[in-house]
Amino acid sequence: MINWLFKKKSNYPDFWNDYINCFQSKNESTIPATRFIAFDTETTGFDKKEDRILSIGAVSFTGKTINVNDSLELYLKQDIFKAETVKIHGLMKSESKEKISELDAIKAFLAYIKNDVLIAHHANFDKNMVNEMLLRHGLGKLKNKFIDTGVLYKKSIHVIYRDKDKIYSLDELAKELNVPIVDRHTATGDALITALIFLKVLARLDKRKHLNWGYLIEK
Question: For residues 59 and 38, is the Cβ–Cβ distance under 8 A?
C-alpha cells in the first residue's frame, strides 16, 4: 500500500507534488553529510490564524560550513498590518523591498528546503505559521524533520544548577555561546544566528559523544 504521504492527488499543484516526491527517495545520511537549513519568519503577530508571515529568511549548511551563496530571503505582500510590529522588525508596508505573493513565497520556500532538516529557534512557532500558510492554499503540512535550537541547547548543558524550565531567547543563547548578533530581527539575520548557535551546540555534543540523530531530532 502506498503511504498517504507520498500519494499524488490530481487536485494538488505540481510544485507540491514535487516537494512530496523529495521524501520518497530520502536515505538517512550521516550528520556531517546532511544539508541543514536554519530559517526564521517575521510575522505581523503570534496568532497563526489571524496573523501573517511578512518575511522568510534561510541559510543552508553542510558539515561546519555555512553556504552564504545558498541563502533565501523572501518578503511577502500582506494586507494585515500592525504598527506595533514595526518596532520589532521594521518591515513597513511602504518599504521598498520587492515583495511577492504568499503563494509564490510557498513555491520558493518548498523548492529551497526540499527534504532537508530544518532548524529554528522556538521552532513550533515558525513551523505553525508556515503550516497555516500552506493550509490556506489547500496544501498539506511540512514533512521535514525539525530541530529546535532552544530545546537542543538545554539538552546539551548540565542543568543541575540551572532552571530546567527556562526558555532561552535567541539573544540569550547567542550571548551564552559567544555568537555575534548580526541583523537581529530580520528573518535572514536571525536564521544566520540560529545556524551559528546550532553549529556551536553540535561541537559540544560531538565532544561528549552525543552526536547522533536520536539525540538531535525530537520524536
Answer: yes
